[in-house]
Amino acid sequence: MDEELKCPVCGSLFKDPILLPCSHNVCLACARNIIVQTPEGETPPHNRASNSDYDYLDMDKMSMYSETDSGYGSYTPCLKSPNGVRVFPPTLVHRHCSITCPLCHRSVSLDERGLRGFPRNRLLEAIVSRYQQSRSANVKCQLCDRNPVDATVMCEQCDVFYCTPCQQRCHPSRGPLAKHRLVPPTQSPVAGGQQMPTATLRKQGTCADHDTVNFSMYCINCKTPVCMKCLEGGKHGSHDVKPLAAMWKQHKCQLSQALNGVSDKAKDAKEFLVQLKNMLQQIQENGVEFEACLVAQCDALIEALTRQKAKLLTKVTKEREYKLKVVRDQITHCTMKLRQTTGMMEYCLEVIKENDPSGFLQISDALIKRVTSSQDQWVKGALEPKVGPEFDLTLNTDPLLQTIIQLDFSANVPPAPLLQLEKCCTRNNSATLAWRVSVSPSNPIEGYVLELDDGNGGQYREVYVGKETVCTVDGLHFNSSYNARVKAYNSTGVGPYSKTVVLKTSDVAWFTFDPASAHRDIVLTNENQTVSCNSYDDRVVLGTAAFSKGVHYWELMVDRYDNHPDPAFGVARINTMKDMMLGKDDKAWAMYVDNNRSWFMHNNSHTNRAEGGISKGATVGILLDLNKHTVTFFINKQQHGPVAFENLEGVFMPAVSINRNVQVNRQSDRVA
User: Fold this and answer.
1) In this entry, which stretches build a coiled coil (predicted)?
2) What's residue 521's pLDDT?
């Protein structure tokens, strides 16, 4: 509460406080020091119209007036006073004067009464008096080293108790401390463990305009107590007023209610402070634990590196010993051979020196053979080292060193998703995957990246990027095993991959006719396995399977065949034309057939006419060999014509075109 009872100008406890219109208080003496003059005859823009009507200080305009040039100035904070407020020397109160609140910087003009026009805050004065009484004497000096003696003074600015020797030594009344206010020693109510005295009944306040008349009413408009004379002929006569006692009780009730709300907030603040203090302890403990974990992780890395170093040194030692052994063995072998050769050479030279022809010829043949044999022992490579001095070992530490340099704390990226195996499945050449995140990351997940390989263990490629946790991938190869993995990402970065799941597509393609891509005249029945048409024109329908790899065979049965139409059977891309015969555009490869003969057709080109047609009950087979990139047609299990088309590349779907004279039923499909 000390701060509430100190003047914002002098920094000391309030003495004769007056209440400004902005509800802030200053000492009466301090108010005299912060009065400023306004130009003669000019009403400042911050002039008040009444005790409760005042404007904000126009700081820009006030700064135009020079204190040295015109004898008046503006209020600005500074370091010239104990509380950072510029204090003006006492001056005469002129007619055109104003005062600026040192806290909110609101300015108000003085009327002819001067500072007497502001009411004295008798309540604050009483509280300050009780507060001073509550601070008992016999306070010890706070600067004595041993055996503190009773304090004789207290500095209100420093808030320190001094005995006389300590005050003269540490707080002299000169220099920058000369302006500090020294008062008789008092004791803090908290330190002294005493409560402030109970408020005593005081004399009722009197009106500032009518000194002998007590306040009895309260002006609602001006928000100030008034006397009866003010109501009879004063400026409050036309204002709304209420009895002083009633308003006193009402405002006390309002203040109590407001204090209840503030009390709740103070309670929350205390709990929050406890939480913060507990957090300090937790941070300290977590920091120690994290440091220990970091040291353990680094020690583990060092230990692993030490073990690996020992293994590598063992390899180097083995390589060195091996090379030394090979070289030593080669030295021993070469030395022995050289000694034998040198001895033989010396013996032969001695034989050559002899002059006995018959004796020489007796041994010359054997010597020649020995010399030749010895020469043959020094074949190419015999005088070359079997090993080199260089070690055939290479240790590349750059990646590891770079990793160590980049070793840092990972950001709050999402954790690795968990693939939900019970929801992952395949159908034909489509695969459905589902996943979830086990723990909620600190940063929200923005999306996922699903990756599949090529079905042969090759490189991964992205097949889906988005926020969904379920994805179906179509157009895969039949009879193939795909590796799939998923990772999450957010604003911080990309998280680690999930575990890999293997999904195997169907060995045999199973398909029905696709109503979504069929022409509107096409009619599908029997769970989309039977197709007919409402139009006399040819209409195209595709199967639900797509082929891009392997060998596939399927059959279609002619359930109805009237008036000798020519339906077409074959394969097509998904964007083939649906309102004409199959094979008339460049996106379909087909055989169209009537009751007597057939033709192959692609891009409206008719080729390979063959005898033999179809009738009701006939079966038409299509063999799509994407390993050889060919299509072959069969009628009633017999190959019809040569290989129809070659060099097929891409993704193909079963296709048929019929009119209303034909009905076709899908029979079977298999992988050859």
Assistant:
1) none
2) 95
